[in-house]
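Assess this one:
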Amino acid sequence: MGGLKVDFGDVKEFIQSLIIAGVLAFFIITFVAQSFVVDGESMKPTLSNGERLFVNKFIYRFNSPERGDIIVFTPSGNENKMYIKRIIGLPGEEVLIDDGTTYIDGKPLAEDYIKEEPIRNSGPYEIPDGKFFVLGDNRNQSADSRYSQVGFVSEDSISGKAFWVYWPLTEMRLIRSYEYNYYL
């Protein structure tokens, strides 16, 4: 009678491989990178609703967040929601939005990535130590640091820096970092 023979050495090797894969996945998701889905239009045209991206969770263990970084964070008071926005203001700076222009400490900021100029003025905002001021690239459709439900973002609430859109495949790309220049 021909029966099914099970090689327990192969089964043991398969189970060990599953355990190793699980441990590696846990380590990567916890400390290195995490997947995130863009929900909404607040980062258009840079990021679109439904795009999937990877967030580098490792980078801020060695470097401080910088102006222009697109970050994923949990807003204070709403631990069940994650947001994705661009850092505009750093600790100790003043941010003002006036007549469609964003000013940092009185200097106009060149922002060629925004969808359209903001339709309303806001600020000035004095950024406390250890906090960041974030805005969506679609300024007129974004809940961001201008609003109390988001407010200033503390460094410990930042999950990481967005770096690669991987879905949909037709839109796969690295997320560009900006070198900021002020208008002359």
Q: What stands out?
A: The first helix runs from residue 8 to 32. The chain is about 15% helix and 30% strand.
